[in-house]
Amino acid sequence: MPHTSRRKKPTPQKRAQVSDEEGWTHIVKGSRSHGWKPMPTTRRREPPSIPSGLTLQKLQQQYEDHRAEWETSQCRSRLESLLDPGTGGVERPSICNAVCLGLGSMLDPDHRKTSFLQLAAFKTMSSALGLISSTSQMYAQDPCFNELDKQSLESMGIQILEDPEAFAHIGTTTFVYGPHCERSLLLRAFEGKDPALVISTCIEDDSAGYDTSMFLERSEG
Q1: 136 in helix, strand or coil?
Q2: What value does the CA radius of gyration of the chain take, rounded to a whole number of Å?
Q3: Distance (Å, rounded) from C-alpha 135 to C-alpha 171?
Q4: 14: which DSSP letter?
Q5: pLDDT tens digits for 166-210?
Q6: What confidence tens digit (pLDDT) does each residue in 90-122 have?
Q7: Is 158 helix (H, G, I), strand (E, B) or coil?
Q8: Least packed by Cβ within 10 Å: which of 4, 40, 49, 181?
Q9: What does the longest C-alpha to C-alpha distance in the chain come to?
Q10: Positive or negative CA dihedral for 120, 124, 130, 134?
Q11: With the CA atoms of 85, 87, 88 and 94 taken in that order, what torsion angle do they form, in degrees rounded to the nearest 10?
């Protein structure tokens, strides 16, 4: 019989929990858990211009196209499992509101697909946590938002706040989502605060021995 070989599926990389000095538990790649540390950075971009002919309706359709891609992704399934205690996910208290920091502009020519998918992830997680957008429990803050970004997000039930207004909405029953957020921003947002749940991919430099913190949760005690 002819010999055939099947391509093996890649084994999902295990993640490890690492606690820092400030009482946060970070879920990082297992191979990088030893000696893991965050690296604060500082950056700020201006809102991109709105292309001629791009309307709110067209932007929303572009988002729906990317949302459909997100809905069938393995990342979405894994993320929902992390938020479900019944499947071994994190134990969490009641969540009453959600704050998104650093989503990015959906009109950024270099990162717009990322922003679309991050928005879809934010809505998925908020829904999994029992939040309903029509009740104005969802907030977003990013100096990169232009007027079309703001109109699109508000049409989805997400209230837009100017820096640093969102920080005032962070409390003990808040879910905070900070996609590609700088650690310095998160520390400023959490000063004197104790949010119930934080999910963030902090910007850190792998080449300098840093790794990305996928998930943070305030440790008890």
Answers
A1: coil
A2: 18
A3: 17
A4: P
A5: 999 999 999 999 987 887 888 889 999 999 988 887 654 343 333
A6: 666 688 999 999 999 999 999 999 999 999 999
A7: strand
A8: 4
A9: 69
A10: positive
A11: -10
